[in-house]
Automatic annotation (TrEMBL):
It holds the Pfam family Ion_trans_2. InterPro entries: K_chnl_dom. Keywords: Membrane, Transmembrane, Transmembrane helix. This is Potassium channel domain-containing protein. Residues 1-20 are annotated as: Disordered. The keyword Transmembrane helix applies. Residues 99-176 form the Potassium channel domain. The keyword Nucleotide-binding does not apply.
Amino acid sequence: MDRTGSAPDGTPPAGTAAPGRVRKGRAALVVALRCVTTITILVAAYFLLPFTRHDVDVTNLALGLSAVTAVFALQVRSIARSAHPRLRAVEALTTTMPLFLLMYSAAYFVIEQSAPGSFNESLTRADALYFTLTVFSTVGFGDIVARTEPARILVMTQMVGNVLAVGVATRILFGAVEAAVRRQTSGTRGPG
């Protein structure tokens, strides 16, 4: 053992954490805090921002979906460049999925406010979020049902988005993680 207490091969003494594990633990804590903060901000914004009947139309929905896609693309890029790609993938999911779900929840809330009767009951923001999560999880309790054609079309777009989010997006994230891990194990670093 040398002055630092490490063995001649540089390994730390028994009972102490390796520096890499400490860094990874700190990184995991930072990611967890960012995830909780992001979700908290998104949910708070959903409940606090004023939505008007003009906030839901095809253009705004397309812009919202484009924003979710852009955030997702930036997240995939950051995974490929990250020292901790698995942690970045978790963070990407906890950023993108709530944004996607809250966007639909806001759309359901606004469509019910602008065209009462679009659903079989009036939707509060909490009801709209509940309905969104019910559609996302494919549980479909049937207690809230889209009754008008625009509401049903909106629900169908979420159903397609759910399949894409769960299937395609998850595969893209796993691919980015695998590429980053391969890069790290081969000893090369990506740009940036």
